[in-house]
Write a structure and sequence with these properties.
149 residues, alpha/beta, Tetrahydropterin Synthase, Chain A, elongated, 3 helices, seven-stranded mixed beta sheet, single chain
Length: 149
């Protein structure tokens, strides 16, 4: 048997980020923002002593990491040709800049997946619990999913 459980931090909790995909040929090249949401799927072959796949109370650190990375941040790719402009905005105190390898919902789901895996490893649960997927929601119509191979 396999067991799965999910943890969702919905758009309504307000992890608000502004970002852009500078390579886009559409309006996505402009700075725009969303209250991002995240959903994680965890899986185990066996349940713990409480009959849980994952102790949701033990995920507070995951939520805090998501907030640290995205909440009230301007998230810009490290190869953005206008990166200096955003760095100047940080110096002026008009934005809180987070520079990442790549920006966009697909990459945000990948970053979230990695954060969840790091937490599972840190807590010593990797021998029993696996992160199956992480999903990032821009809103009710758009999301991106990172899955375990």
């Amino acid at each position: 048997m396999k067991y799965q459980s999910t943890k969702t931090y919905g758009n309504h909790i307000g992890i608000s980020a502004a970002f852009r995909q500078w390579k886009a040929h559409s309006h996505c090249k402009l700075i725009h923002g969303y209250a991002l949401g995240f959903k994680f799927v965890f899986e185990a072959q066996t349940l713990d002593d409480k009959n849980w796949v994952m102790d949701f109370g033990g995920l507070k650190e995951l939520k805090a990491k998501l907030e640290e990375l995205f909440d009230h941040k301007t998230v810009i790719a490290e190869d953005d040709p206008h990166l200096d402009y955003f760095k100047q905005g940080q110096k002026l105190g008009v934005l809180d800049l987070m520079i990442v390898p790549s920006a966009g919902c697909e990459k945000f789901s990948e970053y979230a997946f990695c954060l969840a895996e790091e937490l599972i490893n840190k807590k010593g649960l990797a021998d029993r619990v696996k992160v199956v997927s992480a999903e990032c929601f821009e809103h009710g119509s758009n999301s991106a999913l990172t899955l375990r191979d």
